[in-house]
Amino acid sequence: MNSSMKKQLSIVIPTYNRAYVLKFTLSLLVEQVSRHLEDVDFIVCDNASNDDTQEIMKTMCSTYPFVQYIIYKDHVEVGDSIKRSASNAKGKYLLLWSDDDIPSQFLVDMVLDTLKRHPDLGCLCFNRIEGDSQDVLPIKSLYLTRKDFYEFEEKYDDSSTFIEKYFCDMSFMSQNVINMDCWNKGSENKTEGFWGFEFMIPLLAGLRNKQCLYLGFPLCIERHPSMENHSYANKWPLYIYIGIPRILIYLESIGIINDWKKCYSNYHYANSTFAYLKQVYFSFTKDIPKYQPMKKEIVSYQTHPVRIHYTKMALSENFIFRTLSKIEFFFFYSSYRFVKKVASVFNILSRW
């Protein structure tokens, strides 16, 4: 392949202070990339880490000279870091990979094969496996994200239908392979104010009238780290309960999707009332002064009366109201878990 020709795929990994897990992730990717050097660029972008990342990358670049390592001196928020990292991609397609996600051992092979068979795709999205992780290994309680496997490949000519069906999947960065022309076109839109999901505007806004493909086979494992020890734990509610609805409202305003509320109701974090309320009490209430000014906006995106009630109470200026609502919620939550466990034994109830 002529060195002046554009490669088929750029794999870009934004990273920040996760040397302990980055090393493991890279070990599973570099051998795959080495089989396809004519077709793949491999780039690691360091968001001003101050741990052992540089030492690990020095060894990695020495062993695998094709690995490109870019160090930024200024640290930026996660959404800006992802966009900044993506700007280094030179391939026809871009795969943004999280530094702690575990790739299938044939991820690169399958992605390249799919792109070869479908050369005009705007976006490729694939299934994933999820599990709990407190360290590099082990990963426990694994489960398939999309359990209903109807077809190995689902191709869509209507990008709006594709986005509305798979928006939840696409919000997980490592599941998407995006045509760079679509990414650049999408980047012309507003990309600020989406709390960590800024990458989704370039990802989705340029897909109008483009073919999209979903692979039902899982090609990565997502870790669920301990939220108490995770660097973004105290901002997690902002990402999900402000960033996501803002994105959907914006996508509807520019004609990429038809109904933001329907799409948001399908979003798995938004769809489970108890999952939402757990976030309210485990994360929102840890930093009341930060979230109280946003209460009105957070409440405005909710449609379930129980969620509206507890959000208002949990973020109330009145300490007594907040405390009573927390006690009340945990009583109902404990009761719910007990009933669910009993019901599952008798195979009566599997989901509330």
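[next item in queue]
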Amino acid sequence: MHNNALSVYATNAVFSDPWYGVEKSLVVYYRFGKFRVVQKHVTEGKLLKIVFPGFNHLKPALVKLPGKVLVLRAVYGHKDVTKKVAHLVALHHFHIHAENSVFGDSWVGVKKTLSVVYLKKNGMFRKKVVKEHNVLTIHP
């Protein structure tokens, strides 16, 4: 942390190499206090920088849940798919296929992951990640 910013390189030297020979991405979810969850991601070798903007720039988090689950953020490859996943969950689709046919191919030729952060009605946060061609299950 320096000058109200946190910086980290998405490299194998920092995070190890769980998928040798495969280009990876780093996805980070964060929030300041009771404010909304924010997501940032970078591809392997790039610098991820989170700057604390001050409270005047933050939007308050949602506090009322319209259903059993509130999808806060979702990413497939390089693509923010929060709205798509939230729509599926609103339709009671709790088994979500991590497929290009569902989310599009945001990173051609690279095996992707689907990463979802959600809030349950009981106030518990959950994060789930699955590899492409697998099913992510949200338990309301």
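[queue empty]
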